[in-house]
Write the structure tokens for this entry.
Amino acid sequence: MKTIGIAYRVIGKQRPGIVSRGFKYGQVLSGGMLALAHGTNDAQKTMGIITLALIANGSLGAGADPPFWVIASSAAAIAAGTYSGGWRIIKTTGTRIIKMDAAQGFTSQGAGAAVILASTHFGFPLSTTHVINGGVMGAGAAKRLSAVRWGVAGNIVVAWVLTLPAAAIIGAVTYAVTSLFGSGAVGPILVTVAALGAILAAFVRRAQRGAPVTVQSG
Amino acid sequence: MPVLAEIVETKELLQTVVFAFVAGMGVTVIFSVGIWGVARFVDLNQEDRSVAAAAAAGVAVLALLAVLAAMVIGIVVMTGK
């Protein structure tokens, strides 16, 4: 919030055209940094969990680095997920929380990249979505509190709060179900098949509802 | 509370907050100064005040170089293991 306030003070009396164009060019840099930051934090969490499972199973020694196939599959999965489902998130973050100008875009991207890169450096996993949404809300609120659509922001905050216990409950239920089938591979295979079936059903249902949100339609 | 203090890596968390605050704020403010320099350069150049325009251009170049340097440092240092 403070950052965008100072930025507005610095460039406030200058020509809007030059300022807007300058921040648009800057957004290319800040967007690139945010993409890099996203890559340094998000895929690593998946790699960590798979590697931990491999170590717990005895497939890897304690303290082993993630195998190449884990790195490649995690990177591919996160790239595919961003490509296929990203537009809905982009639409919410970019247009629904605030009516964003170029300076706010640059500031929120820059702040998000700084937070994520610093966290990566110190080894803290965090949600890149939460970080950038927080940055967007701050950039909007600093201009004018009423500039933020607090209803949308509230939904995001509720989702943040629910994420942790929901994930914990799903993890506990999954472990309980797999435990019913002993310590072999039957339980995990059944749960995986059921999860894939649920994902497929959700995908078919979504496809039947209509075309996904794209950059043209969004 | 002492147990919580042992579990939570307070020092590293605080360092993360400070580093992120300084980097995020610093880069944005310096970039804003760069844009200010470019805008002033255009205005002063149109007013035929070449010395002041050159000074504004200098500020813009220095600020933009500082932003690029900060980005390189961010990539090299922050992602370094």
